[in-house]
Structure formats: structure tokens, C-alpha cells
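Blinded run. Sample ID left blank on purpose so nobody reads anything into the name before looking at the predicted structure. Input follows.
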Amino acid sequence: MTLELDTRQRAMLMEMGVHVWLPEPEGVAASAPAQAEPTPRSAQAQSPVRAAAPAVPNRPSEPIPVQRVAAPQPVTAAAAESGAPLDLAQLDGSGLAQAAATCQACGLCAGRKQTTLQALPSPYQADWLVLGDPPDEDEDRLGQPFVEQTGVLLDNMLKAVGASRAGAGAQGAYLSNVVKCRPPAGRVPQGTELAQCAQYLQREIALVQPKIILAMGRFAAQTLLAEQAEQAALPLGKQRGQVYRYQGIPVVVTYHPKVLLRASADKAKAWADLCLAMDVLDGAVK
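Blinded prediction complete.
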């Protein structure tokens, strides 16, 4: 199909960030491009041109805020502006997972296949909350945190302290990612995106009521130590060996299992971190 656009119309479309080679929707007159329906986010993510372009959130030329407002999901409407509070306080485990699956509150949603926040049974309590870095390709594909060889190693680490992802109470370990969507093209999440998704983490904590949080990886540590600027700025190796607090809950920082698979020498350090966490649970360390 060839678009019948004059030079002025093409210039207007280009200024709006619309590629003139894309076909117009059925029934939309070529002479009225300003009323054309914005390309859905899912179509943008599938476009090979957009996928190859660097991820720049909230570009003025792309009508992202309009798409968020138009989406029917409550989370999208509540988060039309970046940083807006999400209405999560009354959600149970199932509702929270559904909210995450449809969330478009930040630019990370453009890169996901599915979120890694899984529905929780109600009621559910686990003494351990293990928080990992942003989802990788495998976690995005399978829709859960800590999978494949990374998950096998973590499961073995948890078994050594008498806990498991399938357990509850003192033997339970609830697993989560610091953000619930894989960043587009695996890019680094921005500070605003980490802060926005932390609202889901806060609701997870309220539901799970953990007694210890194990922060595995630099982004997990960065989020949990956000209110302690000096500590948050340190490399992870310097953050280890101390007990911090997030929402009043003790936090121990350690290496992500993916790092341990590459650097076996750090496994002894990770075991020391697990021992510190166990001492906190036993009351030996405050």
C-alpha cells in the first residue's frame, strides 16, 4: 500500500515521531494523520526498527503518556505520569500479580514477555525474602525469579540454611526481583524505574511479613539501601558484612547466584553472608 501524502503531511508525521512508511489503520484518511490512532506499545516492542533503537524513556516525540492513560487497567491509569503512586495497598497476592502483569507505570513494560511476580496464596508467610536483580532472559521467558542454573544454585544455598522456595514460615523463602519486568534489550534500569517498582516490593513485604531480606545483587542492594545514600553508592563488596534495615526489616547484602556461577571464589563470602542472616534470625545479631 502506498500512502498518498504530500510534503507537508510527511513533515508533520515525522515531527510527531510517526514513521511515514508504516501503513495507516483501515478507515483512517491519509489527509488526517493527526487523528491516527497511536501505535500500541506491543506493536512498538515487536517492530524491528524500534527494538534496535536505544531505549530512551519518555521521549517527547513518542506519545507514551497517551497510551498509558488510554489503557483500561487501573494500574496504568493511576500511573499516567512517571513516579505516580500505585493503588496496591488493598490487593492480595493474586491481585498484586495481576496488577503487575498489566502494569505500564514505567518504560520497563516495553521489554517484558511476562512479569516475574507470582500470585501468592492467602494467607502466606515466609521468614526469608530473597530479592534478586532485574529479570534476565530466562526469568522473563518462564515468568518467575531465579531459574535455570541460577535457580539451582540458589535452591542449594537455601537448603543449606533449612529453607526453600516451596516452604512457609521458618522454612519458607519468598523469591522476587527488584523490578518485575525485564528491561528492554536487557538495559540497565533507571533509578526512577527502580523506585516506581519498589511499590510492588513494599506490598509483597506487607503480605509475606519476612523476618530477613537477602539482597542478591547490586540493583537489589541499591533499592533496599536507597535511604542510606553513602552505603548505596558503595560497590557490593563493600556493602557486605553489615545488617541494614528496609521497612524495619533486617537486610543482608550478598552476591547474586549468577555472579557466583562465574566466580566460584566468592561462594565462601556468600556463605558468610548467609551465616550472618541466620544469626540475625536467631537473635545473635541485631
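Unblinding after everyone has recorded impressions. Residues 22-82 have pLDDT under 50 and may be disordered.
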